[in-house]
Amino acid sequence: MTYTLVRRSRAHLLDLDTFAARARLHPDLVRRLVALGLLEAERDRGDVYWLNPGELATVARIQRLRAGFSLTTPPSDWSWTCSIASMPWRQPCDGNRPGR
User: Fold this and answer.
1) C-alpha to C-alpha distance for 98 and 9, rounded to whole angstroms
2) What is the pairing mode between strands 41-43 and 14-15?
3) For site-directed labelling of 87, which of 5, 11, 15, 31 has its Cα 20 to 30 A away?
């Protein structure tokens, strides 16, 4: 029995640098989003990421959520900081939050 070996075409996919340029993001940030599982990407034998152009909509959604929730600017009256690993649904934070 013989099988035809066909290399999958990536004509419809964007390499990481092209995707990052179209999304107006740094390529390292795109790599982080892929590592976090927020973006789906394929890797070839040379460890090059290939992303579907439809993932640009996912990036836009992430950017809107980040802007809407103001994740980088905590209220000025908070006297403590809290990492994601110590958010309330995981474990209590050290320190007290004013107003509680």
Assistant:
1) 56
2) unpaired
3) 31
Question: Look-up: residue for tokens 């092209």?
Answer: 18
Q: 23-72 pLDDT, tens per residue?
A: 999 999 999 999 999 999 999 888 889 999 999 999 999 999 888 887 66
Cα distance between residue 6 and residue 90, in whole Å: 47
What are residue 42's phi and psi, to 5 degrees?
-105, 150
Q: How many domains does the chain have?
A: 1
Residue 49 lies in a domain: yes
Q: Give 82's contacts (C-beta < 8 A, 6+ positions apart).
A: 93, 95
| Global confidence as pTM | 0.60
CB-CB neighbours of 51 under 10 Å: 25
CATH of the domain at 82: 1.10.1660
